[in-house]
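lol ok so funny story. i was supposed to be doing the assay writeup but got distracted and ended up predicting the structure for this chain instead. priorities right. anyway since i did it might as well share w the group, maybe its usefull for someone
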Amino acid sequence: MKNPHQVAVIIGLGGMGEAIARRQGTGRHLLLADVDERALERTAALLRGSGHDVTVQPVDVTSAESVRALADTAAAAGPVTQVIHTAGLSPTQASAAAIIRVDLLGTAHVIDAFEAVIAPGGAGVVIASMAGTLAAGSLPAELELALAQTPTDQLLDLPVWASPAFSDAGAAYSAAKRGNQLRVQAASARWGRRGARINSISPGVISTPMGQEELASENGQRMRALVAASGTGRVGTAEDIAHAAAFLLGPDASFITGTDLLVDGGVVAGVRSAGGAR
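and the output, tada:
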């Protein structure tokens, strides 16, 4: 075999994806994937310059065929022991429809495709959001069930997406991220039959390029107020998320699967202790 190392797949090369790649890359073959080919090559060059073993493959997570091709490439490179999915759009970046396609459908494609190739003892991490955590309990029970159990190829056909309630990008984002959490829960038993684990991480306000866009948006003032009222009183870093991912991917988390790790500096706790406002 050309490369004897275990394979770690990083999908999405924003601030979190790059930080996780740096943290997880030592002693592993890194397969980087992103829809932006220039970002892909830039990040690959930086990581190779730091001594990492890297290959790249463009991917469109909204395409099941594209994600399956990525999974096949990963499996051909060696045992796939880590899959980290960070790709997504924020409410300032895209329409509600685009967010549902990328953040919800794209994540479902990744969970499905890598379930077929993850190695025994392997683990997956999906980046969700504290927005999904805050949406829990406010979404109708039938929608939560649909988000968890609807076959992936039918997700975009759910009647709820035609509702005015989800025409707003922020509402669509919250629903998509709650869907990520629920689909990880639902997938954990299937991954377990392969001897693998899968979990999600729900970041709070993180100082990545995407996070900075959100802080500069019309919603930025509210976000800063939430951070100020949180237990840590600070914005998170990409490295905070990389540390959490390393734990969930590693042997110390061998009894943790199908769960969501909230990494928000205490924002959700602050919201809920102040009366549960969303």
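The beta strands are 7-11, 29-34, 53-58, 80-85, 118-127, 197-203, 260-263. The chain has eleven helices and seven strands.
back to the writeup now i swear
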